[in-house]
Amino acid sequence: MAYKIAVIPGDGIGPEVIEAALHVIEPLIDAEFVEGEAGDECAEKHGDPLPEDTLELCHEADAILFGAAGETAADVIVRLRQELDLYANIRPVRGFPGLRELTGEPYVRDDVDFVIVRENTEGLYSGIEGRFRDTAYTLRIITEEGTRRIAEVACDLAEERGSNTVTCVHKANVMRETCGLFREVCKEVVESRGLEFEEYYVDAAAMFMITEPERFDVVVTPNMFGDILSDEAAALVGGLGLAPSGNVGDRHGLFEPVHGSAPDIAGKGIANPFATILSAVMMLEWLGEDEAAEAVREAVGEAIREGVVTPDLGGDKKTMEVAEFVREAALNRV
Ligand code: ATP
Ligand code: MG
Hints:
Blueprint: E1 3-10, H1 14-25, E2 31-35, H2 40-46, H3 52-60, E3 63-68, H4 73-83, E4 88-94, H5 99-103, E5 113-119, E6 129-132, E7 135-138, H6 144-161, E8 165-170, H7 178-192, E9 196-201, H8 202-211, E10 218-221, H9 223-236, E11 244-248, E12 253-257, H10 274-287, H11 290-306, H12 319-331
Helix pairs in contact: 1-10, 1-12, 6-7, 8-9, 10-11, 11-12
The chain binds adenosine-5'-triphosphate (ATP) and magnesium ion.
Residues 12-13, 17, 68, 70, 73, 240-241, 259-265, 271-272, 275, 312 line the site of adenosine-5'-triphosphate (ATP).
Organism: Methanopyrus kandleri (strain AV19 / DSM 6324 / JCM 9639 / NBRC 100938)
Domain Isopropylmalate dehydrogenase-like: 4-326
Cofactor: Mg(2+)
């Protein structure tokens, strides 16, 4: 059966990296790709950064591949998360051999492989804030239901990866009620799934992610901790140009690079397409197209090993040259 995939290129380098990712996956799955508008340019044209017909397209689609939105990013992505109930943010942290040498960054690790599952709808980003005279405050809401469903996603991922442990990152020694509930519910869910429950305080986790990242496998954590830890982890495996993400719920999945619209390099054809190609890999996995997903991931690894990379990784290739290489390398594998 052919999939219907909603494609939202958006602004800046969004359309360039999306073109590259589609070039790679098009020959590998039976799908209809339907383009929708969203972002700054769309807002200028239609007076709305996320028009009804784009929203409708996302509702109908089997999956969504998203590029980037500029100034309107918060409106677009936050709204999509709410409308489609995309409560889990999934950020794989996976190194590729050769990356440390390519980037020249001593902290880059070629050998790490873990995944961060961040709760996407509550916690410190609930948006319930206020000011009273000279005092500002925010409400940190953590619910049993919200925690239960994110913990289940982490357990599903652990099972898919063949891991037996889920690691909960929290700060329950200080935030006894909110983190206390998060920890308690995660522990209950993880153990009821027959998996082992591990835990770290977030400060310790931040340190070990650099010094001993091999400690981690599947990490589940509340909203803001996940936001911060996943950027730290992205640096560990080569930075923004390589970091993919998925926003998933019970029915919908939206996949996008972690980076934004990068206006400074837009239109030059030099944007690194790996983050978006790897987001498409996550989408393929989520759809159950594991063989195609693995072929593309290995093809990205080959491009990195061969030095077929854009200028941000020290190469001299254009976005579409990299895409062409990855497409051919992936096709050779299926
Ligand atoms: P936005 O407001 O849309 O987030 P930004 O200016 O914050 O835009 P980001 O996309 O977050 O830009 O990128 C931050 C920096 O990283 C920019 O200098 C950008 O050029 C670089 N960068 C981001 N993504 C890529 C990529 N895919 N390839 C190469 N460089 C990138
Ligand atoms: Mg940015």
